[in-house]
Amino acid sequence: MNSLQTNYQALISDENEAPLESVIFHVAAENGKTRWNHVGDLDAFFRRIYTFHQKRGLIGVLVEHAIWVILFMLIAFGFIYCLNCINFNFHEPYSPLYNKTDVLLSDLFIPLSVCAPNHFGFGSWLLVVLATIVVVYRIYMFFCNCYIFKEIQQFYESAMKISKAETQNITWHEVQCRLREVQHEQQMCVHSHDLTELNISHRILRYTNYMVAMVNKNILPLRFHTKYFGEWIYYTSTLDAALHKVLFTHSSSPFGGTGKLREEYKKSISRQEAAADLSKWILYYGVRSALMAPFQISYQVLSFLISYSGFLRYEPGFLAKRRWSHYSRLYLRHFNEMDHELDARLCRAYKPSTEYMKYFNSPLVAQLIKVVSQPIGFVIVFFTAWGLFSERLFTVPYVLLIISVGASTFMSLVSCLSDEYETYNAKELMKRIVAEIHYVPDHFKKAPHTTAVRDEFSHYFQYVVVYLLEELLASLFIPYVLLFHIRPRSLDIVDFLRNFTVEVQGVGDVCSFALMDVSKHGDPQWTGQSLTKADIRNQAEFGKTELSLIHFSLMNPNWEPPPASHAFMEDFKEQVYNAARQQTAANGQAFYSSLNSLSTMGSKYASLVQSVHQSMHEDHASGGFSTSGPHLEKQYMRGLNNAEGPFEVQNSILTSEMDSPSLQTGLNPLEIRAADMSMSALFLHQVHDNYIASSEVGSSGHSAQPQPRNVGNEDSPLLEEMRYNYVQ
């Protein structure tokens, strides 16, 4: 990154941009109506609109904030009470309760009115004062949020004409459409007349897009090489919050919390000074985090005990389950992908990912688990049965501890065993995973059966116990990561922000990758040589630009992409359609491989695949796709707040060129869209794999490079290097 000397760019508009205001919004009465005529902080305003929608209204938002306040009070004051007001040593000889015949709960838990004046020391009172200050601040913020989100509710009802009942069951796409209508009527944003879906996403995900791009370009050093565990990826929710504060939201950060990159970061001549300032700020924040670490880790441990004690007691096997890591939520995320859209993809990928990890269960490990778990199970049953006939056994020291710990250990071990009658195909499982997560290194697809791929995939799909341990120890590791890994990369971060920040009229400074312009950030291995001129420094890795463009176009069918991106989308659709038409046999073809992979995802996807196969051989008149019926009604009953895109079929790659009555499969449009994106991802991966294979053959000299078929000027440049695979 040190060699990059290009400057910050601005996308010039004929209109002069008005300065941003510090207020949230101005409300004026006009003709008896409430009018939002100038929203100062549109980023925060749109984020609150999105939060309000996802929480399904004002009650959902306020309940969540109230729970945060109550949980903190429970942890802080409960910890102080436990330190001073509980007779943990009542069974010791020196305790006044030692010789008491009947020990009551009131003897063990001393009333606060008695305990505070007699047992609280200076340290305890200091903790009470600090906790009270924090609680008062959180209560104040709760009432501020009450006021703010009450205004958001009024905006929903009066401006967007969305009632409380509709808020419970409306798609985010519909909210965006209403938001655009309000912009035309009331000019919330004074910088431009129109408000596109991309503008809204840029404001909500301004900083998230930067984080996704920095992970994609490996700017943030989040991979660590350890002596005993090999390569380890460390990224937690606490580290994510710290990096957002360091880079974006704090007044000392490069963005200063305003959504606009500071001037010194935009000029290459001042890159060294900007890097020095950023390094000092990271040093200060890292040292402050180290000083606060004892308090933070104490709070995290107590929060963990309150949140997970019940699971540890009654469902200890949950520790052996898996979940998507915080790092995977950045690595696998598309540019401009909303949280609920990402969650939906990862939820669909959960089952095949779990089955893939079970594929590697070693018979030796299974036997060892059985050898260990069986004696533990016998000990538990032995003591439990004995205690049923002799209750005094439970008063013997450590008996209950043995039963409790043994039961938890037994359940955790047994949950690690897979069904011995189930068989898995690693290659097919990886296809199903790629169909949903979209981003994997090439060697994942070439050797999915190897333990090396399994170990690397486990960084994205980690054990719950690993996730919890990382979160518990985050306060100790964050100062180390900031001071010794992030801080030395200050100059690289400054160069990245300068080179990949553009000013968009009406939006402000955004990450240029988030524009999804294949001419500037496309990769010829995924796009085709004629659609992009980007060098390797400007290319997004792993087809991030192309896949993000396809995803955003499917989620927002009314959005108009840049010219080069529009050409890519049209070429992509044409190539999918031509590849399907040119070959009637499924063996070895990318299109059918993609569809056949979808057929393993369940009966609904299988029916969709079958219908598309039938459409290859039938020339029916276009019949369209029905958006009504029981399936859509069922989706309404479940709630549309988490739905991906609109609930009408628009701009579909599967159906746009293949409309026929055979597409009436019982899938609702939301499921069609998910299948659409999965097929597109698999097809584009096949395109990339064919490009790599043909390049390797050409460079090795074992065979001549195949020549693409010349079909005239109207032929699409996309996939031209691989077209011979479909026509020979």
UniProtKB/TrEMBL annotation:
Signal peptide start and end residues = none
InterPro entries recorded:
Autophagy-rel_prot_9
Transmembrane stretches, start-end: 57-81, 122-140, 364-389, 396-414, 460-483
Give the organism the record lists: Oedothorax gibbosus
Membrane topology term reads: Multi-pass membrane protein
Primary role: Phospholipid scramblase involved in autophagy. Cycles between the preautophagosomal structure/phagophore assembly site (PAS) and the cytoplasmic vesicle pool and supplies membrane for the growing autophagosome. Lipid scramblase activity plays a key role in preautophagosomal structure/phagophore assembly by distributing the phospholipids that arrive through ATG2 from the cytoplasmic to the luminal leaflet of the bilayer, thereby driving autophagosomal membrane expansion.
Query: Where is there biased composition of kind Polar residues?
Result: 696-710
Q: Where is this region: Disordered?
A: 696-728
The name this protein goes by in its record: Autophagy-related protein 9
State the Pfam families in the record: ATG9 (PF04109)
Question: May I have one GO cellular component term?
Answer: phagophore assembly site membrane
